[in-house]
Amino acid sequence: MKKDFSLEKKVFVFMSLLVCTCVCLISVFGVIKKEQYARAIEPFDTVNYNTEASALLTNEQKETSTSVNITEQTQKIIINKTDETKQNEISKSFADIKEENTEQTKLKAMVSYASSWNHGAYNSLVNGALNKSNLNANEETHLPIFKIDTQQDLERLMSEYGEDIFINEGYDEMPSFEETAKKYDEDFFERNTLLLVYVSAPSGTLRFGLKDIDFNSDSVCVHIRQTNNPQVFTDDVAGWIVSIEVSDSNVNDCEFFDAVLDKD
Questions:
Q1: Do 66 and 9 share a structural domain?
Q2: Per residue in 23-55, pLDDT tens?
Q3: Which of helix, strand or coil describes residue 2?
Q4: Would you say 144 and 157 are in contact if contact means Cβ atoms under 8 Å apart?
Q5: Which residues contact 65 (CB under 8 A, 6 or more apart)?
Q6: What SS3 class is residue 81?
Q7: Are residues 144 and 193 in the same domain?
Q8: Alpha-carbon distance 212 to 224, whole Å?
Q9: 242 in the same domain as 161
């Protein structure tokens, strides 16, 4: 009986040891697994942190990119505004030039009465005109034109033709050429030139005025038009001088001068 008890005791001790060994092994294995799990978790945390940092970096890059885009857009706006300003300045310059020319050709002209009472007086005007060779052309009705550069030239012309074309007489509401000529003094001729166009009319009822002026590099052509269309005509022969004020810079280099009566 004693041997059996010892055997059972040994078996019990062995089983206890086995159980303890298993428990120890399980505990050790659990610690190892926990460490491996902890090590396995650590890289993912690092990756997540880097991902967040990467996301932040991407946002910064986006903000930088947006700033760059805004800067580029601002530069484009500035460039466009600059171009627009230049274009406006250029347009304004052309508008000023056009307005200046319009003022000159439309407002700086006066019509005066100066009747050529006979053909001899008119022929005398033709012989002294700058466009003498064009006055008998068939294509257009050319008119005698004169270029006056100084007050002395004006006085000389009035002295030469005054008695023949009655420059000291007016006609109805129209002033005499002598009266008109008083405004053209030395101050005027310092920067300006006077173009005189003579219009002979079959009736004193007809009126004429400046229509347009063509300025070219070496020539000037003045266009005169009839300004009324009367139903009743007087039977007197009349003559008119259209005085056109132009800047010296427009005619200084011109060699050819002409004047025409437009029919339209």
A1: yes
A2: 666 665 554 555 554 444 444 333 443 444 444
A3: helix
A4: no
A5: none
A6: helix
A7: yes
A8: 7
A9: yes
Question: Pairing state of beta strands 219-226 and 256-262?
Answer: parallel
Residue that is written with structure tokens 């005698």 in the block: 144
| 206 pLDDT more than 90 | yes
The residue range of the domain holding 1 is: 1-107
Single out the residue of 223, 56, 216 nearest to residue 140, CA to CA. Answer: 223
Q: Are residue 81 and residue 152 in the same domain, yes or no?
A: no
Close Cβ partners of 168 (under 8 Å, ≥ 6 residues apart): 162, 176, 178
Q: How many domains does the chain have?
A: 2
If pLDDT is split at 50, 70 and 90, which confidence band does 211 have?
very high
In order of 89, 92, 181, 217, 221, the CA distances from 95 in angstroms are 10, 5, 32, 21, 23
pLDDT band at residue 67 under the 50/70/90 scheme? very low
Place of tokens 């700086």: 108
User: What does the pLDDT look like over 87-117, one tens digit per residue?
Assistant: 666 455 444 444 444 344 445 899 999 886 6
The pTM for the full model equals: 0.60
Q: Look at phi and psi of residue 166 and say left if phi exceeds 0, alpha if psi is from -120 to 50, else beta.
A: left
How buried is 145 (Cβ within 10 angstroms: 0-12 exposed, 13-18 middle, 19+ buried)?
A: buried
Distance separating alpha carbons of residues 85 and 72, to the nearest angstrom: 19
| End-to-end Cα, the chain, rounded Å | 157
User: Among 186, 185, 243, which Cα is nearest to 213's?
Assistant: 243
Alpha-carbon distance 211 to 206, whole Å? Answer: 15
φ, ψ of residue 123 in degrees (nearest 5): -65, -35
